[in-house]
Amino acid sequence: MSSLDAFAAQKLDDLEARGLRRRLVVTEREAAALARRGTGGQQRRLVSFCCNDYLNLSQDERVKQAAAEAALTAGAGAGASRLITGNHALYERLEQRLAAFKGTAAAVVFGSGYLANLGIVPALVGKDDLVLVDELAHACLFAGARLAGAALAVFRHNDMNHLETVLQERRAAHGQALILTDGVFSMDGDLAPLAELTALARRFDAWLMTDDAHGLGVLGEGRGSTAHAIQRAAGGEEVEVPLQMGTLSKAVGAYGGYLCASRPVVDLIKTRARTFIYTTALPPPVVAAALAALEIIEHEASRRRRALDHARLFAELVGLPRPEACIVPLVLGESAAALAASHALEEEGFLVTAIRPPTVPDGTARLRFTFTADHREDDIRRLAACVRARFLPRESA
Ligand SMILES: *Cc1c(COP(=O)(O)O)cnc(C)c1O
Question: For ligand 1, what atom is nearest to the CA of residue 182?
């Protein structure tokens, strides 16, 4: 065996022994949150509770039709980066639509949410600057911060006292400061305290950026966690998030990332963000699908309400705290426990993949349930009964 293959095999054995090896399973998603899992005779039809397609728009006929038409008129791929020949008129339309919907002056679209964060953060800060990141923020915010080469300070999850202390101790030694947080935390479903973050950012002259992958389409009339926080703000509180990043791959049901911000910030990003410049534009069908989905998000409030109601119904039936978004975690501890729980639910016809480190902190492996508009109430009740019977200590069940 070559040293390379021996290295890979040894690493995999080690990960396997720790319950951390990951495997791909062929999954064919259908309408109404159904998924066919596996191949050939092994294939099973499951109700999926682990997809981020909160409004089921990836399977919506209007969205699929828009993608198909764009493929036929504009082609399957973009052919080049936006700055060369890839800038089809659809991109401009999508950016204008996003900015108008989110209430910002401008927007820029990236190949994915991950690429957006890898591009945005290094375009704004560098080695003389300070980046402050919530410890539970998404992996790609950390990746962007590391790529920027700035000093990195991690603050305890949603702990504004800790953030204040870090700012007091470290802010003055740096040029710019950038605070990074998820708007809706991807593995816990809780929200960042945007009013408090706004106040701290102002006081210490730091720039606030949210990753709203799980807020767009769901919270704040679909406009996301910032709009939601503005609606909720108590008298005198202000919410201002000058850098609102998100993805088109979750509630929007398509693919791609975006940043909504002021005109100069967006123009700077289009000039300097390496993951915007040195990569091919999104395929036109994907852009057309996102446009069609945004239209639906803006006009069909009932979808968003149903998705949230489903998450709340499940949490209530199981006896978990009332969720603020469509994500409900059930922390089980060790990876083996989460894997076993996931297998047990699969036997009952439910698809809920186990979430393990390093996606979540050590000792907090979990089932992460996500709810969508088109889930059937019957299925949610059956799932809740299963979860109560199998995974909850008797006292709380
Ligand atoms: C999914 C996710 C991303 C990545 O978005 P993609 O478009 O899938 O690359 C970024 N941030 C958070 C919080 C996410 O949940």
Answer: 13
> Does the CA dihedral 113-119-120-126 come out positive or negative?
positive
Residue 397 has pLDDT above 70, yes or no: no
Q: How many CB atoms lie within 10 A of CB 312?
A: 17
Q: What is the pTM of this model?
A: 0.95
- Helix (H) or strand (E) holding 266, with range, is helix 263-272
Radius of gyration of the chain from Cα atoms? 21
396 has a pLDDT exceeding 80: no
Which mutation among 211, 286, 370 tests ligand 1's pocket best, with the greatest number of atoms within 8 A of CB?
A: 211
Q: Which residues line ligand 1 (CB under 6 A)?
A: 112-114, 138, 140, 182, 186, 211, 213-214, 247, 249, 257
What are the percentages of helix, strand and coil residues in the chain, rounded to 5? 50, 15, 35
Element (H, E) at 219: none
Task: Indicate if 112 belongs to the active site.
Answer: no
Tell me the DSSP string of 281-332: PPPHHHHHHHHHHHHHHHH-HHHHHHHHHHHHHHHHHHTPPPPSSSEEEEEE
> What distance in Å separates the CA atoms of residue 250 and residue 55, rounded to the nearest whole number?
9
Nearest atom of ligand 1 to the alpha carbon of 116: 9
- In angstroms, the CA 352 to CA 317 distance is 17
**Chain center to CA of 350:** 22
Q: In this structure, which residue's CA is closest to atom 7 in ligand 1?
A: 113
Atom 10 of ligand 1, residue of closest alpha carbon: 113
Choose, from 250, 270, 310, 375, the residue flagged as catalytic: 250
Paired tokens of 172: 């003055």
Any catalytic annotation for residue 64? no
CA proximity to 178, closest of 144, 132, 117, 212: 132
Average pLDDT over residues 279-300: 97
- 231-266 pLDDT, tens digit per residue, is 999 888 999 999 999 999 999 999 999 999 999 999
- Cβ contacts of residue 325 below 8 Å, gap of 6+? 184, 189, 191, 214, 215, 218, 219, 308, 311
- 162 has catalytic annotation: no
